[in-house]
Amino acid sequence: xxxxxxxxxxxxxxxxxxxxxxxxxxxxxxxxxxxxxxxxxxxxxxxxxxxxxxxxxxxxxxxxxxxxxxxxxxxxxxxxxxxxxxxxxxxxxxxxxxxxxxxxxxxxxxxxxxxxxxxxxxxxxxxxxxxxxxxxxxxxxxxxxxxxxxxxxxxxxxxxxxxxxxxxxxxxxxxxxxxxxxxxxxxxxxxxxxxxxxxxxxxxxxxxxxxxxxxxxxxxxxxxxxxxxxxxxxxxxxxxxxxxxxxxxxxxxxxxxxxxxxxxxxxxxxxxxxxxxxxxxxxxxxxxxxxxxxxxxxxxxxxxxxxxxxxxxxxxxxxxxxxxxxxxxxxxxxxxxxxxxxxxxxxxxxxxxxxxxxxxxxxxxxxxxxxxxxxxxxxxxxxxxxxxxxxxxxxxxxxxxxxxxxxxxxxxxxxxxxxxxxxxxxxxxxxxxxxxxxxxxxxxxxxxxxxxxxxxxxxxxxxxxxxxxxxxxxxxxxxxxxxxxxxxxxxxxxxxxxxxxxxxxxxxxxxxxxxxxxxxxxxxxxxxxxxxxxxxxxxxxxxxxxxxxxxxxxxxxxxxxxxxxxxxxxxxxxxxxxxxxxxxxxxxxxxxxxxxxxxxxxxxxxxxxxxxxxxxxxxxxxxxxxxxxxxxxxxxxxxxxxxxxxxxxxxxxxxxxxxxxxxxxxxxxxxxxxxxxxxxxxxxxxxxxxxxxxxxxxxxxxxxxxxxxxxxxxxxxxxxxxxxxxxxxxxxxxxxxxxxxxxxxxxxxxxxxxxxxxxxxxxxxxxxxxxxxxxxxxxxxxxxxxxxxxxxxxxxxxxxxxxxxxxxxxxxxxxxxxxxxxxxxxxxxxxxxxxxxxxxxxxxxxxxxxxxxxxxxxxxxxxxxxxxxxxxxxxxxxxxxxxxxxxxxxxxxxxxxxxxxxxxxxxxxxxxxxxxxxxxxxxxxxxxxxxxxxxxxxxxxxxxxxxxxxxxxxxxxxxx
DNA sequence: GCGCTATATGTTTTT
DNA sequence: CATATAGCGC
Length: 960
Fold this sequence. Notes:
InterPro entries: DExx_box_DNA_helicase_dom_sf, DNA_helicase_UvrD-like_C, DNA_helicase_UvrD/REP, P-loop_NTPase, UvrD-like_ATP-bd. It comes from Podospora appendiculata. Keywords: ATP-binding, DNA-binding, Helicase, Hydrolase, Isomerase, Nucleotide-binding. Pfam families: UvrD-helicase, UvrD_C. The protein is of the alpha/beta class. 45% of the residues lie in helices and 8% in strands. The chain is built from 35 helices and 16 strands. The protein has a 6-stranded parallel β-sheet with strand order 3-2-6-7-1-8, with helices on both faces. Strands 11-16-15-12-14-13 form a 6-stranded parallel β-sheet. Helix 11 links the parallel strand 6 and strand 7. The longest helix is centred in the middle third of the chain and has 24 residues. The radius of gyration is 30 Å and the shape is globular. It binds a DNA duplex (15 and 10 nucleotides) through helix 5, helix 10, helix 18, helix 24 and helix 25.
């Protein structure tokens, strides 16, 4: 398998055994199942390099598909580093959507697609559907209709076909009828406007590749990142792209499947195994990212899902600090606590950690408000990724709409939006009537206007003389003029993209328009426009630099050469969603990252905060799939390398003063978390330094820089807000900002029905304090998974570090970790395949496994399941998808089952019995070696790493 | 057609 | 509680 050639060597040397096997596998189809932090991207990029450099495939015959633009960018960059000579630019690399767009713009006319199709973005389809529903007076919820249509498209022709032959729907629900009508109208509208929506890009590309397989005749191999997120169409597309050679490599992790709502089907994994027998399966299990405590706890969360593949996460790093679960009073207190904790952590680390090492991950973008406010107030720089999009700002959308109409006059929606911007005396009503008139006479709005203004055909709609003049004199003339300058290369040089935009801005006197319409913040908006221009300039530059993304010539099939910048720019805007603000070169100061959890997938940070971990946020009240919400939390937690903080506000920030309930995903695990941030003494900081392989700052450096009045502990905010509130009444000035917070509380609004409090406590707080303190001290060694009932730990170890020997210890550890991964042979990987065969031989058809769970479990066991699906899985999957299809009709979302352990566990206010007795150690005794193992702790809990020779036992899951 | 005020409404995730 | 929409007066 491993050849001695230097080329091979250089690729393989940075890989562990399993990774190397994956990279160099000779199998046509390779499935890599990779847990978080297992070097997934590195493996995939290495395989690309391997295929090109060692297997000799031409870069232009390789397709790499990712799900996000960011992943595509990163992949390209990393491949570029390994492949010499800029060959990465020749690889067909991008998101599924952008790859589909490339094929469609090159060959689309063979399936009757206009040369100049545009892309309907989210806002477009929403608006179109909303209009249709209103016009036809459909009694359906437009967003639901949109989701339904999208699902229908995303399911893929194959699945749709199967579904229709299997069962006659026979349920002509009134709603269904309307949905169908809406679907048809919507599609008609798109066709008329020459638009494809996101799903259409995939659907039409599938159609193209079915009818004209020669488009991809050159393709040797196809690689898919984040495979667990593929939906039905994407699966078909993948197969079709690879149809010539059938060589496919996929990388994925079912536990990180968080796009079910976008019709991602985990079932595609089985489909792949069914359709490509002989697939080589490889699991990547070593986790190079996170501390052991973080991994252990993340596993506890994900294992609440009883019907997932069981997969291992083998920690490579040290135990680290125990993750924190913090209770705050309100969302704003939560935000301020986060800021104070960031400050404390960074200061206590010396200069080892900075803002760039911190991420705040949110379930929904809307939650960022408080956090942004608090960060801003404290003067901490931050960047928000995901959520609001630059291109969605009204001033930018206006310019984009102008550009779109220049490119595609028949785009009625875009034209309608700019007709009266700047004000030309055409009201919404008039525009609506005009559109309807245009649709009735099957004209585009554009041609209707042209005809009207030329006098060829007077519009029935009454337009004021003044408006008419403005339309014809300003709007039409301007647009026509620019279009001519852009397309006609005859005279002079045609307009470039930037020139076009600048010309538009001048002609519209856009700055003035902004001043008039937005007197308050026109400066900011104008700055955005400037930014937009520079983004356009960047785009043009990148395009020239990386050559255009033309596909290689295929004999006998005519390509449309598409070297217009404008359509490419517009497509890029629609498909890229967020403008990359980084602008490459000089990095300014490091910034805290605020991100949605979805957008954070694939990334990592030393310090991660996950606020708002309450029922209704995670799981989100509107979610239909509780398991997916749990996976979401898992993804968030596994982004953290060293420090992980979960938190939630006890009271809802929405006026009504309702109490929030801790998320059911963490409620049963409450006792596994620390109740406040760690004390950053040498051992704690030393472990962070080890994981990050950074230089540990000397003590003096740390203390020298501590500001006066700085609290070294996480004690500025009360551990228990209810308690604090009660105490605040009797003891007004407790000291610190925390107590000031107390006053701000919505309590005044509605006299809080007495919050349950413990009665006796004068010294209660003090006791709490001591316990917390002890926890901090022992956290480095005592907390183990195995102490929970029903769990066998995957293996843990402990370390003792002092400031003096930290460095030596670090190198030893590295060695040990290296030995560990080297000594372990890749476990037998065939389990999933075995299962599949057994299952297939008994059932023939994909859905409906006829095998009993017990039998399957016995077949599988053999003690070494790297991955094994629970036997019931396929059926459940199937059921679910059936249910989901009609989900928009059911008013009651399915609730996630409450984890069993929650019952009988802690109550709201009764502190749980701690997992292990709190040891009360004197401060400063940093050495963890002296700690005794508390009674009842299993041996595995503290086995030193180097004692573990054999592979870790798989985690057994009896009961939580 | 435009701009103001009162009301309701409603609160994921992304290509 | 904060934004989008609807309705009203100019």
